[in-house]
Design a protein that fits this description.
Elements: E1 10-12, H1 23-32, E2 43-47, E3 53-59, E4 64-70, E5 86-88, H2 90-97
Parallel strand pairs: 1-2
Antiparallel strand pairs: 1-5, 2-3, 3-4
Length: 112
């Protein structure tokens, strides 16, 4: 599992993405469709139409990483297509990759 820092944002590209895309294709999606900087160090998460594969694009300061996960059974609970990317917290990304449906969970209020 990725462990981004507290300043790292996680952007989820809603809708389906062609999983044949690799570094250059995902880079173009981030800069064109999501209107963000792929070299910012933030994480960009993509999913295919069947929702059984995800890819994460990130820049670590020296190069781009593409991380992928394929489910053997079941699907990811992916949000419906909307305008622009959805921003997630690190815990929400962990839940999503772990197979939980974010629309059926709620954040509890707690004091720090």
């Amino acid at each position: 599992m990725l462990s981004p820092g507290p300043a790292t944002k996680i952007y989820l590209a809603t809708g389906a993405t062609d999983m044949r895309k690799s570094f250059n294709g995902l880079y173009a999606l981030v800069s064109g469709t999501l209107d963000a900087d792929p070299l910012s160090g933030h994480l960009f998460v993509f999913c295919n139409r069947r929702r059984d594969r995800i890819k994460i694009l990130c820049f670590d300061g020296s190069g781009l990483w593409v991380c992928a996960k394929r489910l053997e059974k079941g699907t990811f609970a992916w949000p419906q297509p909307c305008e622009g990317p959805v921003e997630l917290a690190q815990a929400e990304l962990n839940l999503l990759v772990g197979g939980l449906d974010l629309s059926r969970t709620r954040k509890r209020r707690w004091l720090r």
